[in-house]
Amino acid sequence: MHKDRSLIAIDQQRKQVVIVAMAGNMLLDFAGPADVFTNANKCLNLTGSKSGYDVLIVSPTTNKILRTSAGIEMVCQHSAMEITKPIDTLIVAGNDFQTLQKSEYTDFCNWLSVINENNTRRIGSVCGGAFALAEAGLLNGKKATTHWQLTERLKKEYPLVDVNSNAFYTNDGNIYTSGGVSSGIDLALALLEEDHGKDIAIQVARRLVFYLSRPGFQVQFANLLPVYENSNIAKKLHDWVIKNLDQSLDVVRIADHLNMSPRNFTRVFHKQSGLPPAKFIEKLRIETARKYLEDTDMPLESIAEKCGLGGLVSMRRSFLRHLMTTPSDYRRAFRTSLKIPGMNEIIQPDLHSTN
User: Fold this and answer.
1) Does the pLDDT value for residue 270 go beyond 70?
2) Which DSSP state fits 175?
3) Is the pTM of this model over 0.90?
4) Domains along the chain?
5) Which of 2, 127, 325, 349 is within CB 3.0–4.6 Å of 216 for a Cys-Cys bond?
């Protein structure tokens, strides 16, 4: 007799993973975690283990139609609301950012609001999926993360959530949240390691040509400064500061440039930007250094001098404090691929492949 997969209770060997693919998201938001768990099955089978995962991708709406940002339309076999039996791992992957509050999501949010440790062992989110968990009240009083571009909105709309804008993924109790897109793979690998140990997780990471733990600390490399409105004093100062980063920029000099008293300038700047002037200058120095590291071959010492970060040791300390990585590691991670030595030699044979 055929059994509906969405209604199967968890047995002692196979764990049911339900991934809710929200509308308007990137394919990797839900495909990445799904690939981790399905590849885990292959690695576990090779060891003779009968354990593994039953992976089910479901829709948050009753029409079961999923439209992605890539223009691909999918029809899911089930909607989340059809699942009534306990789930091992529930992951809400992405959302459409703007229509989460529309009536079409009401049933899903109601269903999500009754999810708890009694019917679901672990609850997670990828990227904007944190908004769905927050809307359902699951993140109240919890630590959580989301894509760095969405953290300020998450803080504003759900003040009861303790938002961490840097982490690739984080957990608080049985709640796991992750940052943008590929961070869902980081999270899924961590959950896999939690279930079956490091060796299996490493095998899956190798299959996906992905790090089990990315180099350095697990952080998203968000912009250190927000985008200020044109009327904001920080926006007005931005271009002038950039031109003078290699010089000493104390409060007296900046205030003099604006024809303001140092005391009044400090008060107005902090009120409008949310930062002391010195913090703003430091972050702008680091942001500018990041661009030089990404786009140029300029020596690290020259970048430190040009951005007013002192010597190489001082710049290294600033990067570790704000980005939790060193300038040299940052360059290796984000330098344009067109400038990576040997890349042409690696790519060229594939361009002429007949396979």
Assistant:
1) yes
2) E
3) no
4) 5-207 (3.40.50.880), 233-338 (1.10.10.60)
5) 325
